[in-house]
Q: What sequence folds into this?
């Protein structure tokens, strides 16, 4: 018995040594996730911790000397979220890369001055406000598409378009970059398609019939190359304008139009809920090894329409 055990131990040790001598590039094989989906049905990667090697990506992207634009809206009282958003972005968002933060606001004097790493800057874009928070949220699509010609096409390679009532809490880097990406909505991860809160009225431009749709994407984080973001935000804004002229507004505002667009134009990468989570609402399930961009608790009565 003792001898058999000793032989097994010897054999295992031998196998482990072999693994250690495999080339480094094979490491990822041993990190492969089996607890979460890694590919969409159109073979786009779904990005999770354990599916990418930061160092390999760094080599690929740093040569290309890219600049990433981050659009964030802080209109009316939402300026209060900017400080934590920007401070945590400096710690975790695209560290080591050139970043332009585009802060869209009606209160430029309230944009906090925070220390920035080299190659990174804040560009304040003064825009109008709207009375209803829903209109502010929806008009982001129009404003992003409008500023593509004035700024983004000349100044950045990629855009990340994000909610402000959030903070960064772990590495969030070039692994997200692709022609067009969307993020899985944390509230619908693992839910059945029929429960997705798509717009279900056929009169709306955002309509997705029952039985159709791939994922439920979050309105709070999407992006891609400037050209693709331009096309998407312009199309969403046009769809909203058509609905408005017909007296209809989609159930989840800009998020509904985003879902329709990404249903018709499949994203080339999909970010897992590591990239948008709400711990207060949803706790911390085991499949989430990292929380990279998370909701900051907000009191709706105090902050919305103010
Ligand atoms: C995390 C996430 O996926 N959030 C989406 C969700 O609601 P949320 O409840 O997260 O919406 P929200 O109140 O954060 O509004 C969306 C964003 O619009 C901006 N804002 C809004 C109101 C205001 O007075 N000032 C201002 O600046 C701000 O950047 C904010 O983060 O659904 C919304 C549509 O219903 C949007 O699609 C949001 O992106
Ligand atoms: Mn939000």
A:
């Amino acid at each position: 018995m003792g001898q058999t055990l000793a032989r097994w131990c010897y054999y295992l040790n031998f196998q482990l040594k072999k693994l250690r001598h495999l080339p480094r590039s094979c490491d990822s094989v041993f990190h492969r996730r089996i607890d979460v989906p890694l590919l969409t049905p159109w073979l786009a990667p779904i990005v999770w911790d354990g599916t990418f090697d930061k160092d390999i990506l760094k080599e690929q992207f740093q040569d290309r000397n890219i600049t990433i634009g981050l659009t964030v809206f802080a209109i009316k009282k939402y300026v209060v979220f900017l400080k934590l958003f920007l401070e945590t972005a400096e710690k975790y968002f695209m560290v080591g890369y050139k970043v332009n933060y585009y802060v869209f606001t009606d209160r430029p004097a309230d944009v906090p001055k925070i220390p920035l790493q080299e190659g990174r800057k804040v560009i304040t874009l003064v825009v109008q406000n709207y009375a209803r928070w829903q209109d502010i949220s929806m008009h982001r699509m129009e404003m992003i598409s409008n500023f593509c010609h004035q700024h983004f096409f000349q100044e950045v390679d990629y855009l990340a378009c994000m909610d402000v009532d959030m903070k960064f809490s772990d590495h969030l880097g070039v692994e997200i970059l692709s022609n067009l990406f969307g993020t899985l909505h944390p509230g619908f991860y693992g839910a059945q398609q029929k429960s997705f809160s798509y717009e279900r009225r056929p009169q709306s431009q955002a309509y997705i019939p029952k039985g159709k749709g791939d994922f439920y994407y979050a309105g709070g984080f999407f992006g891609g190359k400037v050209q693709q973001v331009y096309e998407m935000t312009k199309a969403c804004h046009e769809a909203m304008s058509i609905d408005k002229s017909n007296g209809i507004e989609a159930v989840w505002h800009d998020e509904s139009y985003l879902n329709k667009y990404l249903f018709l134009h499949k994203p080339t990468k999909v970010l897992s809920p590591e990239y948008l989570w709400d711990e207060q609402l949803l706790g911390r399930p085991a499949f989430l090894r990292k929380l990279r961009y998370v909701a900051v608790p907000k009191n709706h009565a105090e902050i919305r329409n103010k």
Residues 24 and 53 are 11 Å apart (CA to CA). The longest helix spans residues 133-155.
